Model the fold of this input.
Amino acid sequence: MSFAPSIPILALIAPQPDGACMSRFPETVDFNNADAFQSGLRPVCGQFIIVPRRKDGCMHARLGLAERAGYEIAQIGLDAMYTERDKRSIRADPSDNMFLIFQQIGQAVMYQDGTRVMLNEGDIFFCDSSRPARFEFGGHYTQQTSLHIRRAEAVSRFGARLRTGICLKRDDSLSLAMRSIMQRVLFNTPHAQPQTQLMDTLFSSLGAVLTEIDLGATDARGDGSHVLDAALHEISVQYADPALRPTELAERIGVSLRSLQRAFQQIDETPRQRIASVRLERAYQKLQESGKPYAKQTVTDIAFSCGFNDLSYFYREFRQRFKITPGEVQAQIHGRGRSIHPRLSA
Done:
C-alpha cells in the first residue's frame, strides 16, 4: 500500500497519556516492502533511497502525516539498513523543507554536511532536505517524528544563525522543552495554548539553540557533560583496539574532535593521555596476572592485547609511568621485586 501523490493530511484526534514519547499517531499506513514505502515516503519527505535489511525487499515500515498550525508533521518507522537522499535524488525531487527530527524509538546514525551523529531516544536533529543526507538504522526498527519547516520561513526566523546537522541531546533543558511543546502540538488538550503560540515557542527554543552554538556554549553535535561520560566509557570498553585514537573516539561517540578535547578539560587531561593511561593500567594488571602459573603470557602478547602496536613505545611509556619495567612487574609475583603497585609506594 502506498500514498498517492496528493496524500491527504491525517487527523490526530485525541491527547495521548504518555506525553513525552509521541510514539503513537492515531492513524498510520503500514508497508511491507521497500518499493511501496519509497513511493509513500516521497510525497511526504521527498525522494529517498531505501535499502532494506532483506534482499527480497521485505521490510516493516509505517508512515503517518498530520497538519498542525499550518505545518506538516510526519511520523516514520522502519527497519531498513539505511535511507539516503543523495544528489541524484535531490535533482529528481527538489525540496525546500528543513526537518526537525525527534528520535522516538531505537537509534539512528545521521550524516549531513560532514556531521555524524548518533541519535538515541529523546534526541533531536535538525537537517536540510535540499542537501545530501544519510540515515543509518542497521536493520533495527526505529521511529521518528519530523516537523517540516519551509526554508524561507527558517531563513526569516533565524537569519545568519541558520545551519544544519545540529543535534540536541535528550538531557539538554532545551531538548526537554522542545519535546514537551511538540507533544502538546500533536495531542492538544482543550484548554492548552493555541497551536500557533506553541509553534512560536518551539521555534524560539530552536533559535536559542542556534544562538548558543554561535556563542560556543553548545556544540552543533550535542556537546555537554555527557560527552566526557560517553568518551570515558568508550575508552574503558575499547582500549584494546589499536585504531582507538582521539579522532576515532570523537567519531564513535558522535562529536567533533574539538568538542571532545573541550570535554576532557574538565579533568585536566587530553583524550590521548586518557587512552594511553587506560592501556598502561590494563597492561600492568595483565602483567601481574601473567606471572602466575595459570596465566602465562609474554610481555609482547600483553602489549598487543592492550592496544599497543609499537613495543618500543610501550616499554618507554610503561617505565616512565610506573618507574619499573614490564619484566620486573612479572618478577614481583615470584618474590623477586616489590610487591605493591609502584604508584602507591613512597
User: Anything to note?
Assistant: Residues 195-215 form the longest helix (21 residues). Confidence is low (pLDDT under 50) at residues 1-23, 336-346. The domain at 225-344 is CATH 1.10.10.60 (Arc Repressor Mutant, subunit A). The first strand starts at residue 29 and ends at 33.
